[in-house]
Amino acid sequence: MKIYIYADKEKLFKDVSRQIIEEVCKNPNCTLGFPTGSTPMPLYKNLIEDYSQNKTSYKGVTTFNLDEYVGLKKNDVNSYHYYMMKNLFNHIDINLKNANIPNGVASNLEKECARYDALLEKHNIDIQILGLGVNGHIGFNEPNTLVSITTHVVNLSNSTIEANARNFNSKEEVPTRAITMGLKNILNAKEVILIATGLTKASAVKMMIEGTMCNTCPASILQTHPNAIIYLDEEAASALKNSKNIVIKN
Ligand code: GLP
């Protein structure tokens, strides 16, 4: 696990964007894993800006989103389908047939998970980008998720529902279930980039990096990944005390 800490958040997102753009240029048929949430928004903004300036093409790129709420239709403003269209896909030349997101309104959710796993098996994710939940979740892999789990339906924890309620009119409107890629799918990626910014993530960041690897903090599983980079701003890194492999980026 490499840990990069940035005083300048803009630089953090420039560096992550550069890494993604370099991958797409080097390997136009690459497979990328995408998260949602507020954290990756500046990354998507940079990718769009680069596309309009440099025409980096995503025509051959395949993408997999980590998760989707159960019960929200694609055109629901709170669905992750809607988020991806609005914040990235509508603005680049990706072939939407290659942009995979779990279907949260599938009539048979178990079948939908199996369909997603089968697709993931055909494509080895080159770079999986992740955000971090305040309780240490990645994707929607909540505390106490098994490491061996693949795509599955999850009951969201109260802390996740509360954290995500800011995007809905009320806490009651937040779906209580989601489909998520499992920890096993995430660990299969050749490279993992996790981004965490802000004080609200400091304790999850500490558990992920300095805690013993255990399923109380699902993100701590990244300690076992041979090629994981954690990008942090100073606030998210503020609780770290004895981490190895830290690089300070200014
Ligand atoms: C959601 C998503 C995660 C995301 C997390 C953090 O629960 N399922 O993939 O990483 O929220 O979101 P934010 O970046 O808004 O803090």
How do the strands of the widest beta sheet line up side by side? 5-3-2-6-9-10-1-11
Distance N to C terminus = 20 Å
Largest beta-sheet characterization: 8 strands, parallel
What's the Cα radius of gyration?
A: 17 Å
Order of helices and strands: EHEHEEHEHEEHEHEHEE
Helix content percent band? 25-40%
Number of strands: 11
Task: Characterize the structure shown.
- With 250 residues, the protein is an alpha/beta fold.
- Helices cover 30% and strands 18% of the residues.
- It has helices spanning 9-26, 41-54, 80-87, 109-122, 158-164, 183-187, 202-210; strands at residues 2-6, 31-34, 62-65, 67-69, 99-100, 127-130, 152-155, 177-180, 191-196, 228-233, 246-249.
- It has an eight-stranded parallel sheet, covered by helices on one side. It has a three-stranded antiparallel sheet with strand order 4-8-7, with helices on one face.
- β2 (31-34), α2 (41-54) and β3 (62-65) form a beta-alpha-beta unit.
- The protein is globular.
- The mean pLDDT is 97.
- It binds 2-amino-2-deoxy-6-O-phosphono-alpha-D-glucopyranose.
- 2-amino-2-deoxy-6-O-phosphono-alpha-D-glucopyranose (GLP) is lined by residues 35-39, 66-67, 131-133, 139-140, 160, 164.
- 2-amino-2-deoxy-6-O-phosphono-alpha-D-glucopyranose binds at residues 35-39, 66-67, 131-133, 139-140, 160, 164.
